[in-house]
Amino acid sequence: MSTPFYVSPQQAMADRAEYARKGIARGRSVVVLQYTDGIVFVAENPSRSLHKISEIYDRIAFAAVGKYNEFENLRIGGVRYADLRGFTYDRADVTARGLANVYAQTLGTIFSSAAEKPYEVELIVAEVGPAPEDDQIYRLPHDGSIVDEHGSLAVGGNSDQINSYLEQRHRDDMTLAEAVKLGKESLARDNNGGEREVTADQLEVALLDRSRVQQRKFKRVLGSQLRRLLGEDESSGGSGSSESGDDGEESSDGDSEK
């Protein structure tokens, strides 16, 4: 009888982590930046119906890279958690920190289980506060760990090069137009350090805007408004501060994309 092949637990975990990282790196990047009035999300995503960025609750948004079906399941679970907690207790009890803890438990359990493959996803959960110092941004890698972030970050694709680019140029006092332009410029960086063309039609942009009087702070930036912010539609005029298209998503429905 042959001896079963032995793999140490350390090697098994390392192999699972490498498998997940390679899957995440194949996805297009998402950039998150704080600006004067909130938090803006910029993703390279030509699809208009399958979103990488979605609303979870009043002040909370979700972004992800990796396998669409996997992070869409996580998004739906987060919406259900937020709705149930807000209904059972109070809307103010739904926080990004609590949601990040739920996602961390789910991802950690899947990653450490030998019965199934690890999720090939990396998540961002963000909450806008009354003031910039109250904003919360959490990054959740494939293994379920939680990283508290501030200022700017990128996940997926060539995130190392993008993060280096952002660190040199991001400021907390940026306007919305400056933040969106920086997000676009950072996504245009390629693995060789060069730059490629990225247009408004290839971008998905959404934000958590603390200046909105509505309870729900999430809105998408679409069409001519996005082109104005990027300087691609000079003839339209205006500062691009008004809303365009759907100002949010129903908390019980929506999509996300790879």
Order of helices and strands, N to C?
A: HEEEEHHEEEEHHEEH
Our count of helices gives: 6
Main β-sheet description: 5 strands, antiparallel
Helix content: 25-40%
Indicate the overall shape: globular
3D architecture notes:
This protein is of the alpha+beta class. It has one domain (22-226): Aminohydrolase, N-terminal nucleophile (Ntn) domain (Glutamine Phosphoribosylpyrophosphate, subunit 1, domain 1, 4-Layer Sandwich). Helix content is 33%, strand content 21%. The protein has six helices and ten strands, in the order H-E-E-E-E-H-H-E-E-E-E-H-H-E-E-H. The strands form two sheets. The protein has a five-stranded antiparallel β-sheet. A hairpin with an 8-residue loop joins strand 5 (121-127) and strand 6. Helix 4 (159-169) packs antiparallel against helix 5. It starts with 8 loop residues before the first helix and ends in a 28-residue tail after the last helix. Mean pLDDT is 87; it is low at 235-246 and 248-257. Pathway: Protein degradation; proteasomal Pup-dependent pathway. It is found in: Cytoplasm. InterPro entries: Ntn_hydrolases_N (IPR029055), Proteasome_alpha (IPR050115), Proteasome_alpha-type (IPR023332), Proteasome_asu_bac (IPR022296), Proteasome_sua/b (IPR001353). Keywords: Cytoplasm, Proteasome. Component of the proteasome core, a large protease complex with broad specificity involved in protein degradation.
